[in-house]
Specification:
Helix content: 25-40%
Structural class: alpha+beta
Strand content: 15-25%
Number of strands: 30
Oligomer: single chain
Largest sheet: 6 strands, mixed
Length: 592
């Protein structure tokens, strides 16, 4: 069945059920960014494979709403599908529920699967559609009816994430959560986001590619914690370990009944951005509900001393894999056939040689020439380029290790560059250095600092259509909140948080450039004006000197780069052989 046929079949179902529009988001039942195959309904109906986007089908029109990271990719993947692209971040483009309010008649009916819509999403839709009296039907899993060979919900086994890595026991973490529940006057806390559950209970799983999480839900009570999960996923040893610490394991589908049986005296905390409307509607109507961001999200974001120490060692291992890869690539690019895919596989091989490596932390973006202009390009056998000794190769990748999660981008010079390429490489580097080296007063947020990385790029009338950085989990999701470096993020950057720094320039049809490190938020000096903060780079890998127009760098920028490269060499050289160490010395030599 091609995309057009699938859309037509969906429209037939809509007509049978007197429905005027149907909405398919990117999410699973836990509002995850990365999802198991079972929930890739939006991809199935549209052919668009990006991680973010919503499809809306009406009886005579269809649209996909996605953000700037995916405009180029979406244009290509939606060709001849009959689904239009709505460039969601562009000025004047309506949100999908605003668009529906505009195109639908009064009293129309809009359907969707309430399992995969958060409370906040539904509130927004209700607000946008109420003027026209449009009815929402929230129990319609039409894609499930149509998708004949739909993959099952994963049933991978969970395992314990040792406290030697985690730094805090699950009992300590539960006590912290309960203290916050008490402050808010609640005796129950519903937790549905998979990375929060994994962090809270010191468990990991393999239900979602690249994300060591397990499909489950949790309810924390005053003296007990309930883990709702398919019992076949919990090995006997793990179950007895959990139960010894007051965590009762129940079947995943029992959560609905549990919520229905709460009383009018109970008070429940839930995150309306993460909890599905289906679970919300299951809660006893008389139970008081407190809407609050997940308690665990802030706790998880601030890494403890053990996690920080482990991560720094993890980053050394990851840096060694990157150095071996870049050396190999530069040596062999004009001697043997290397494609985007074989390069990606080679880097994963180097990572797999490192102790504690579990797998990639996301699908590697390995883009040569114009492919790198697509921010989330994924090479395949048909589209991939063969690399040769000219131009730029961008590789954005990361690893999951028992002792941390990594995320790094390097743009590698494979041969002769144009003046424009060198200029743009240097502009990205200048933005990268500006954010890396900032000293700022405590209280600043990502929205305050985002402009630093963009300023040198803006000077040339250029920009990048994404945030500058995001939080990173610890042997967890590569994208982690609440903090990020973007104009819309207003979360204070706290000591112990991790953020990435990844400005870029992407010129459609030509090339893409990005440089990315992970950084730790640390304290600087304290004066009568307050506590000053700074970032410490925890990614150790050279930045390609061959891409830089030195005349564009200030003395302080050169000094920062030289200091960074000195640290990279000092950290990595002891673990390299003589030939590798000599190569790294050359790649990190001082520039004047």
């Amino acid at each position: 069945m091609n995309i057009k046929n699938r859309v037509e079949k969906l429209r037939e179902l809509m007509q049978e059920n007197q429905m005027d529009a149907y909405i398919i988001p990117s999410f699973d039942a836990h509002q995850s960014e990365y999802i198991a195959e079972h929930w890739k309904c939006r991809e199935w109906i549209s052919g668009f494979t990006g991680s973010a986007g919503t499809v809306v089908i009406t009886l005579n029109d269809a649209g996909l709403w996605t953000d700037g990271r995916y405009y180029i990719q979406a244009e290509k993947q939606l060709e001849n599908s009959g689904i239009r692209l709505f460039r969601m971040v562009d000025p004047g483009v309506p949100f999908y529920s605003e668009w529906l309010a505009d195109v639908l008649n009064e009293g129309s009916v809009v359907g969707f699967d309430g399992n995969v819509f958060s409370i906040d999403m539904v509130k927004k839709m209700e607000e946008d559609l109420k003027a026209k009296g449009i009815e929402l039907k929230m129990d319609q899993d039409f894609i499930g009816d149509l998708w004949e060979d739909r993959p099952e919900i994963p049933k991978g086994s969970i395992f314990t994430h040792d406290v030697n890595y985690a730094g805090k026991s699950r009992v300590e973490k539960l006590n912290e959560v309960r203290a916050e529940m008490k402050n808010k006057g609640a005796n129950y806390y519903i937790l549905t986001s998979l990375d929060d559950i994994a962090w809270l209970l010191n468990i990991r799983g393999n239900d979602v590619p690249n994300n060591p999480v397990a499909i489950a839900n949790v309810i924390v009570a005053e003296h007990k914690c309930y883990l709702f999960i398919d019992s076949c996923k919990v090995p006997a040893l793990v179950k007895s370990e959990l139960e010894a610490e007051g965590i009762e394991v129940r079947e995943n589908d029992e959560i609905q009944t549990f919520l229905e049986n709460l009383s009018h005296e109970d008070v429940v905390i839930l995150d309306t951005n993460k909890t599905s409307i289906r679970l919300f509607n299951a809660i006893n109507e008389q139970t008081k509900k407190i809407e609050s961001p997940n308690i665990t999200t802030n706790l998880k974001a601030i890494k403890n001393d053990v996690e920080i120490k482990k991560l720094k060692w993890c980053e050394i291992k990851d840096g060694l894999a990157m150095v071996k890869f870049i050396k190999w690539l530069k040596h062999f690019v004009d001697k043997e056939e290397i494609t985007e895919i074989t390069a990606e596989e080679k880097l994963e091989n180097f990572r797999s040689e490192q102790e504690g490596f579990v797998g990639p932390s996301f699908d590697t973006i390995a883009g040569y020439k114009e492919h790198a202009a697509m921010m989330h390009y994924k090479a395949n056998q048909e589209s991939q380029h063969t690399l040769n000794n000219e131009g730029l190769f961008l590789i954005d990748s990361g690893g999951q290790y028992y002792d941390g999660t990594t995320d790094i981008t390097r743009t590698i010079v494979l041969g002769k560059l144009t003046e424009e390429q060198k200029r743009d490489f240097t502009l990205v580097l200048k933005g990268f250095i500006a954010l890396s080296s900032v000293k700022y007063l405590y209280g600043a947020t990502g929205s305050n600092l985002d402009v630093l990385a963009r300023q040198p790029i803006w000077q040339y009338g250029l920009d990048y259509k994404c945030g500058t950085g995001h939080g990173v989990g610890f042997f967890l999701n590569v994208h982690e909140g609440p903090q990020s470096i973007r104009s819309t993020n207003h979360v204070t950057l706290e000591k112990g948080m991790i953020v990435t720094n990844e400005p870029g320039i992407y010129l459609e049809g030509k090339y893409g450039i990005r440089i990315e490190n992970m950084m730790l938020v640390v304290e600087d000096e304290k004066t009568e004006f307050g506590q000053f903060m700074k970032f410490e780079a925890v990614t150790y890998c050279p930045i390609d000197l061959a891409g830089i127009n030195k005349d564009m760098l200030t003395e302080s920028e050169k000094q920062w780069l030289n200091n960074y490269h000195q640290e990279v060499y000092t950290k990595l050289a002891p673990y390299l052989n003589e030939e590798e160490s000599a190569w790294l010395r050359e790649e990190t030599k001082e520039i004047e």
